């Protein structure tokens, strides 16, 4: 089977850490099938990167790369920033249509798989209909949980879900949210994301701290995620301020970049928390496992989530976590090891973190163990294969019906 994957959430030269889970998913699917990736790059993001590098925007830029054995096209996506969001599907289609048509003509996929319902999913469904190919859309959480709060975008997303041949969600919670948009349950499939278990696996805490240069005796909280409002880092900072006044000596290491970096940094200085709250920036995948192993507890105070890769990776490394009770997080939390709290409540978060820091971890088998990427890919592969088979069978029935209709019309037109 040939799978064409369309999503802006994928690593590129400007943002190598973007959508690494999609890269891992496609690599695993690539072990079973032929794959081709189209990942549009927003012109705004490219301009921002070019300004930092002091280089000019190339109007004829149509890059492609061989990414771990996969061909990836990176067409530029033009759109008006912060306005006309409901029309982003049309803007994306106009932007990448030449690249998309060339890829389909050359690669001749059996199915188009898309991640992120709007605008990516809208374009995938439109292209699939134009070329007679089935379209399967994936939702990771925020697209169906947050974007649908805008009534115009909600209609666009609902249309994508209705027109697609199958919908894949990453949690039961998101599956329920999709059903609320009047999508038939038989069309929806839940497949948890996988984890690279060869990289994210248990290890000695002291050894991990030595490699990272951390104090072996100080309590450590680790939080991984983009520094954006939805991830709740301001709530985490307030919670750490409370713990610093009464708890044991600790340091909370925040791994990630984003729009809140300056604000958080300013608040840390204002509160005098330089020893307690440190912004470490984005970390390469090769070091993340050691951060999880080094932690006494992993914190994820998000306001909205699907099933976060951060927690799947932390679980695989043997770490406990404190997280918001949102999205699919309760589906993977262990009641004996983890703590769930109401989102956007610094006091509850502080109490949960303090409690975890005061009690040493006891290694026990969890009620939930993450899939490997290979196991996840097998489940995805079966859904895509079934969808392609049903679509082909449907086309065959339509062709038979049209042929029968034409024969009947010819008989009716014959002279008596």
**Strand-pairing-aware structural class:** alpha/beta
Instruction: Give the mean pLDDT.
Output: 88
Number of DSSP strands? 18
Gyration radius, in Å = 24 Å
Distance between the termini: 50 Å
Can you give the helix content as a percent range? 40-55%
Q: Mind summarizing the main beta sheet?
A: 8 strands, mixed
- Percent range for β-strand residues: 15-25%
Task: Provide the low-confidence segments as ranges.
Answer: 399-416
Basic shape: globular
With strands numbered from the N-terminus, the spatial order across the biggest sheet is 4-5-2-1-7-8-9-10
Describe what you observe in this structure.
The chain has about 425 residues and is α/β, with parallel strands linked by helices. About 45% of the residues lie in helices and about 15% in strands. The chain has 15 helices and 18 strands. The protein has helices at about 20-30, 45-55, 90-105, 115-130, 140-145, 150-165, 170-180, 205-210, 235-245, 260-270, 285-295, 310-315, 330, 345-360, 375-415; strands at about 1-5, 35-40, 40, 65, 70-75, 75, 110-115, 135-140, 165-170, 190, 195, 220-225, 250-255, 275-280, 295-300, 320-325, 340, 370. Strands 4-5-2-1-7-8-9-10 form an 8-stranded mixed sheet, with helices on both faces. Strand 4 and strand 5 (about 70-75) form a beta hairpin. Helix 1 crosses helix 15 (about 375-415), helix 8 crosses helix 11 (about 285-295) and helix 9 runs parallel beside helix 10. The longest helix is centred in the C-terminal third of the chain and has 41 residues, at about 375-415. It is globular and about 65 Å long. The relative contact order is 0.11.
């Amino acid at each position: 089977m040939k799978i064409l994957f369309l999503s802006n959430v994928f690593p590129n030269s400007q943002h190598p850490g973007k959508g690494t889970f999609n890269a891992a998913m496609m690599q695993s699917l690539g072990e079973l099938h032929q794959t081709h990736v189209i990942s549009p790059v927003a012109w705004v993001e490219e301009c921002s990167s070019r300004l930092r590098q002091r280089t000019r925007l190339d109007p004829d830029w149509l890059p492609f790369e061989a990414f771990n054995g996969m061909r990836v096209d990176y067409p530029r996506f033009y759109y008006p920033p912060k306005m006309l969001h409901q029309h982003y599907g049309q803007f994306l289609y106009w932007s990448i249509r030449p690249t998309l048509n060339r890829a389909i003509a050359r690669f001749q996929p059996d199915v188009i798989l898309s991640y992120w319902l709007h605008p990516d999913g809208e374009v995938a469904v439109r292209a699939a209909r134009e070329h007679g190919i089935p379209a399967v859309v994936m939702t990771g959480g925020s697209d169906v949980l947050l974007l649908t709060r805008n009534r115009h975008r909600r209609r666009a997303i609902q249309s994508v879900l209705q027109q697609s041949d199958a919908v894949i969600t990453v949690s039961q919670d998101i599956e329920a949210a999709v059903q609320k948009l009047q999508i038939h349950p038989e069309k929806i499939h839940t497949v948890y994301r996988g984890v690279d278990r060869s990289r994210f696996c248990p290890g000695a805490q002291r050894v991990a701290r030595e490699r990272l240069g951390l104090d072996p005796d100080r309590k450590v909280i680790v939080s991984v995620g983009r520094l954006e409002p939805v991830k709740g880092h301001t709530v985490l900072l307030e919670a750490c301020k409370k713990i610093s006044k009464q708890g044991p000596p600790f340091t909370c290491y925040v791994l990630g970049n984003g729009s809140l970096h300056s604000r958080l940094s300013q608040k840390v200085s204002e509160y005098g928390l330089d020893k307690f709250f440190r912004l470490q920036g984005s970390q390469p995948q090769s070091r993340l496992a050691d951060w999880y192993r080094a932690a006494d507890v992993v914190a994820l105070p998000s306001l909205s989530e699907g099933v976060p890769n951060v927690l799947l990776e932390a679980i695989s490394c043997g770490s406990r976590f404190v997280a918001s009770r949102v999205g699919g997080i309760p589906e993977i939390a262990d009641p004996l090891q983890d703590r769930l709290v109401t989102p956007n409540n610094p006091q509850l978060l502080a109490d949960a973190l303090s409690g975890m820091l005061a009690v040493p971890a006891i290694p026990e088998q969890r009620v939930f163990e993450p899939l490997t990427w290979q196991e996840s890919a097998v489940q995805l592969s079966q859904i895509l294969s079934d969808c392609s088979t049903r679509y082909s069978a449907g086309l065959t029935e339509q062709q038979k019906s049209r042929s029968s209709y034409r024969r009947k019309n010819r008989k009716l037109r014959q002279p008596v």
